[in-house]
Amino acid sequence: MALLKSLTLKPLVKPYTSPILMNHFFNRKSTVRSFSAAMSPPSTAVVYHQEGPPDSVTKMVEVPAVEVKENEICVKMLAAPINPSDINRIQGVYPVRPQVPAVGGYEGVGEVHSLGSAVKGFSPGDLVIPCPPSFGTWQTYVVKEQSVWHKVSKGTPVEYAATVFVNPLTALRMLEDFVDLNPGDSIVQNGATSIVGQCIIQLARIRGIRSINIIRDRAGSDEAKEKLKKLGADEVFTESQLEVKNVKSLLANIPEPDLGFNCVGGNAATLVMKFLRQRGTMVTYGGMSKKPVTVSTSAFIFKDLSLRGFWLQNLLSSAKGEECKSMIDYLLGLAREGKLTYEMELTPFKDFQTALDKSLGKLGSQPKQIIKF
Amino acid sequence: MALLKSLTLKPLVKPYTSPILMNHFFNRKSTVRSFSAAMSPPSTAVVYHQEGPPDSVTKMVEVPAVEVKENEICVKMLAAPINPSDINRIQGVYPVRPQVPAVGGYEGVGEVHSLGSAVKGFSPGDLVIPCPPSFGTWQTYVVKEQSVWHKVSKGTPVEYAATVFVNPLTALRMLEDFVDLNPGDSIVQNGATSIVGQCIIQLARIRGIRSINIIRDRAGSDEAKEKLKKLGADEVFTESQLEVKNVKSLLANIPEPDLGFNCVGGNAATLVMKFLRQRGTMVTYGGMSKKPVTVSTSAFIFKDLSLRGFWLQNLLSSAKGEECKSMIDYLLGLAREGKLTYEMELTPFKDFQTALDKSLGKLGSQPKQIIKF
């Protein structure tokens, strides 16, 4: 079996035109032309041959060396997260996903191992991330065109470099792309304990924007509140605390928010809308409760709310893709300075199945799992 | 009892700053200073002293003459509609409404009866409408500042001049204000038999925009379909016809719409969203089913829909208020040419209670009621 490195996207939403991603796995095999070319080391990869339950369809396999073509870079992976969207891709329920057989994973970080003959501006040992992310990061060696790779500062903690795109960039873009916020303004969000939620609190704080945060009622919610306040949250409420006639009466010195974020749906989304000011905007980027968003007619007509959605994938195919690189650099700078933090657990690659079980929720609430190669 | 002509708005949403509307009824009484000033004729008005069921709280009363001040115009009303929002104001359930005691009505048309000494640009006999509309049109003589009145062409059918603001202007602004549409594009709407719905069909047609229309399942729906097609509707479906896996498979040569209008809520709103293309916009301007709009998380994230609301009242307090006058002239031009039509029933003022009962739905489905003075 050849190294799984470039896989076709099923264009379920729209055709994806990145040439490197359009190389089909099977076509790829036939392009291995000569044993005299530069070759990657053999790789160990988490592969699935059909979509389904991730804990039964994924296997760790050894894949042989492949050619590193003149414009390609072979990267020795250092770390890669297991994100919910990675799981949804393997389950076959995510709109944009690779054709099987496929290697799991979408973001990650590695160091340059070897370079194709025409590659410029990279050296062995450079810390690089696929930017925008690219399928197949759950393996020890990844070979992709140099345009896929973005160099990051060597002092960057690998777990932040590995996870900067999917969560922190979502937080940053959502704060930038919908409403012009100024210091002293506020935002409201539910699912505030999620990594995106924690990033929103910290990124807002840096800009002088106050955050109103809604979390679930559950054992440990007092502890969760304290954690979020330490990150810079101005107000944290559980959903049950908001069972009052006028939620805005709970805001002491915080102005009504003009922007809200919803990653839960159901009642938690309704609460975000209740906090919003006249003509405010709510951005939905997740649906953790699996409940829809329900909106009264008067919220549209008399309160003039705008409801929008955010999906990083749409950004990647837009002109903003390039702009993301400087945002990534900004976010990783904050991570290096300790100004952007979130809890993660690093698990050795050999224990992948344990990390997967934790990510699937089979072992209760667990921190974000980062595979360390 | 003095002539009820200028009434304060309760600022339930925000303060309204039009000076003429801020004159309080009772203050008004004290400004009648001299019997030598120009006076209006006595007026017959539909008045309510408290909010409640319109058929029990409204009474037709005679109100004495008042002074016509130097900047005011006395208008002899010719026609005024009973709109659902007029009813909601009397019921006390509309966010912006006059303080009681109040004269009912909000839009209408009349002819200039007499002018204050400083009024320029108007002559007795001119056809005028309050533009933007102004409380208290259900009476035979209305006295307001000249800035309230907008002159319209004398050939205009009074029933169209009386109704042009609330419904046709809503249709026109909704087609203009949310998405840039080009000839060949399409829109989708529910509640298509409403007057706004009929206006949307005709105004879209004039611009070469195709319309997909959704109506309720009920006796006479085949006849309703035919009527809408005669107005220029490209496709008309009942809700039950859209119980198919992919509603878009029903569109023959019409492109997927980028813009949808919802005045119903519930399933009818979901159907509008199903027709919309990726990144489409749905504008809610009514909730006839009294059911909320329910939206899946994936409609926001993966389909990237935007959900907005439209309320004419917001427009009036924005900079677009002035721009509305040229739109009104455009719409009345179409009405004069027979290119904008909708069914109305003219009822003599003396039979106001019958017109009100019809508007309240007490006599089954009835055309829009226009009071003819």
Molecular structure report:
Two copies of one chain form a homodimer. The first copy, chain A, has helices at residues 19-22, 25-30, 54-57, 84-91, 158-163, 165-177, 195-206, 221-231, 266-275, 297-301, 312-316, 320-336, 352-359, and strands at residues 9-10, 43-48, 58-63, 72-81, 97-98, 102-103, 109-115, 127-130, 141-145, 149-152, 186-189, 210-215, 235-238, 259-262, 281-284, 293-295, 306-309, 344-348, 368-372. Chain A is globular, with a radius of gyration of 22 Å. With 373 residues, chain A is of the alpha/beta class. In chain A, 29% of the residues lie in helices and 23% in strands. In chain A, the strands form four sheets. In chain A, strands 4, 7, 8, 9, 10, 18 and 19 form a seven-stranded mixed sheet that branches. In chain A, strands 13-12-11-14-15-17 form a six-stranded parallel sheet, with helices on both faces. Chain A has 13 helices and 19 strands. The longest helix of chain A has 17 residues, at 320-336. The model of chain A is unreliable at 1-35 (pLDDT under 50).
Oligomer: homodimer
Count of DSSP helices of chain A? 13
Largest protein-protein interface: A-B, 30 and 30 residues
Low-confidence stretches of chain A: 1-35
**Number of strand segments of chain A:** 19
Strand residue percentage of chain A: 15-25%
- What is Rg of chain A? 22 Å
Residues in helices of chain A, as a percent range: 25-40%
Structural class, from secondary structure content of chain A?
A: alpha/beta
